[in-house]
Amino acid sequence: MDHVPPLTGTIVRVDSRQCEVLPDGQEKVQPALMRGKLFGERSNDKSPVAVGDRVDLEETNLGFSIEAVHPRRNLFSRRSAGGDTRRQPLAANVDQVVLVACFGTPPFSSLMTDRILVATSFADIPAFLVLNKVDQAKRNKIEEIATTYRQINQPLLLTSAATCEGVDELRDLLNGKLSVFYGLSGVGKSSLLNLIEDGLGILTREVSASLNSGRHTTTYARRYPLQAGGAVIDTPGVRSFKPYGIPPKELRLHFPDLSAVAGGCQFHSCYHRGEPGCYIPAAIEQGLIFETRYRSYVQILAELEEEYGAIR
Predict the structure, then answer these.
(1) Residue closest to 105 by CA, chosen among 138, 144, 132, 140
(2) Considering 25, 50, 69, which residue would you say is the last residue of a domain?
(3) Number of C-beta neighbours around residue 165 at 10 A
(4) Which residue, 64, 60, 84, is CA-closest to 23?
């Protein structure tokens, strides 16, 4: 009897109710059922699959089902929202995370930006920071925030969906790569993607003035192929983000600015929270570390200790 090779494919859409897959060698995206055994195998995950996952499929008279998830090259994830302590997978097997923040509304948040950068560092995924809506900010404010992240060698790009500033550069950044677009609701992710490629037709909505934040336009993660090569994964906008799974004692490793000056601390085991001989306050005074970055570190460390236990 001839051996029939397993049917495989790639997850291209995931939401709370539906999963879609592109079977290898086919051009049409198909709905697919997630087998119950997948939830048992990944019991600590809110969803057993993420956009970008490679999977084994079975085709029956009722359609496709996902039988198994292949080992991942990487996984971009977060802690589930609310009181749910499980991991929420966001995208798998990606080349980079494009973190979109903005000026105007919603206002730029150093803490939110740093939380996401910490998560990408922990996942060992390159991150690119896009500061959108530069047409809505004063130049000195733009330079202040941009300088904070350039100082840690964080790649960044200034953009405006309204004036098309930076759009060509962003298009070049995405060429040939699988990229995740991620950020707060209302920062302009969908507007930028629609400018990058005609025909995507991703819905956009006005920012809610009453909430001072965006409304959720994208309600599920979906992969969009790009004509120039590569693809982007557009994700639902978020109102909060907390990293998942980082041991509190390792957080300092994901703040390159703190790591760069930690040799000045009296003790190698210094966790930069007021320990005797900690060099960080002096480094802030000398302009080697921005105070906003240090505040982010202290806040994230407290959150991780609350979840995973205090450093001993």
Answers:
(1) 132
(2) 69
(3) 17
(4) 64
What digits encode the pLDDT tens for the residues 51-66?
999 999 998 888 899 9
80 and 226 assigned to the same domain: yes
| pTM assigned to the model | 0.91
Asked whether residue 196 falls in the same domain as residue 177, the answer is: yes
Q: Which domain holds residue 90?
A: 75-234
> What 3-state class would DSSP assign to 13?
strand
Alpha-carbon span 127 to 119, nearest angstrom: 10
DSSP string, 136-191: GS-HHHHHHHHHHHHTTT--EEE--TTT-TTHHHHHHHHTTSEEEEE-BTTSSHHH
Tally of structural domains, the chain:
3
CA 171 to chain centre: 18
In this prediction, residue 43 has a pLDDT band, given cuts at 50, 70 and 90, of confident
The Cβ of residue 242 has, within 10 Å, a number of other Cβ atoms equal to: 18
Alpha carbons 224 and 51: distance in angstroms, whole number: 11
Report the b/e string of 80-96 with b at 16+ CB within 10 A.
beeeeeebbbbbbbbbb
Q: What is the mean pLDDT of the chain?
A: 90
CATH of the domain at 208: 3.40.50.300
- Residue 51: DSSP 8-state: B
Rounded distance between C-alpha atoms, residue 87 and residue 42, angstroms: 10
CATH number at residue 253: 1.10.40.50
Residue, of 26 and 211, whose pLDDT is higher:
26
